[in-house]
């Protein structure tokens, strides 16, 4: 099938993995490619999946080229400033307060700027600033110093402007929101950091490897997300919150959610997740494609069909074991798939 006959969403998906010059050449190959890419502002701008789910990113689907490569710095700035009330520098507000009028021009200019920079020097400088920021924040929970917060936050945003893949900056900004008790927004920013670099230690999804007995660093980082979710659970618990477990079994409400998630990825409706389906599920949950050994071990440990594919029963067995051991992990997983982790309901999608 020629490219010109492909659906526009497939054309956009292919273009996401191309460099700017190749995108232009690809977009000029046919009228459909030209309309799907070169004159399509949504391709350059649109948030991941084309929408926000209750204000949060959904990592399941197609994203914009600018945000995929550079992160959504405009939304990051907006969340941080509105949530904290901190007044950052005028230079930052001029740069990030208003979105570009032309996202294609923004993307091309941004790419050229980054390509012309000395990345090694910038990376060394960025890592130094990140380490200094971590040191500065260690005492802030006991003695809140807003001038330090402004200084650190400004540094992190400037680093992201020139090193958009530095996930540590998102982590620092999320931590600032955490110590200011802006927990939902802190989770939002951590989600954004995971989209930029899922291999960054607090975002790397090592729990998935741990479950199937693969090698794991015993001194792995304790995720900030886990602490935030635990605090939110303690603070927001009320009589209307639905339990994850009933008598050490998955609650009916959680079972319903897990059935819906499983069915979403069981594309061939055979009651199993084949290697491709399981890979997509894990990637959609924590932003990483698992190794082949993980795919095999999941089925072996929790239940597989004759072909070694994880069954629906095995999928539920995994979540029962995980929820018994650490409910916050299950909450994070279902949240990643667009569910309210206390009401166990699908979050409303808004444009």
TrEMBL record:
InterPro entries in alphabetical order: EF-hand-dom_pair (IPR011992), EF_hand_dom (IPR002048), F-box-like_dom_sf (IPR036047), F-box_dom (IPR001810)
CDD domains: F-box_SF
Pfam (any one): F-box
GO MF term set: calcium ion binding
Residue ranges of every copy of the EF-hand domain listed in the record: 253-288
Protein name, entry field: F-box domain-containing protein
Organism in which the protein naturally occurs: Mucor ambiguus
Residue stretches making up the F-box domain: 1-47
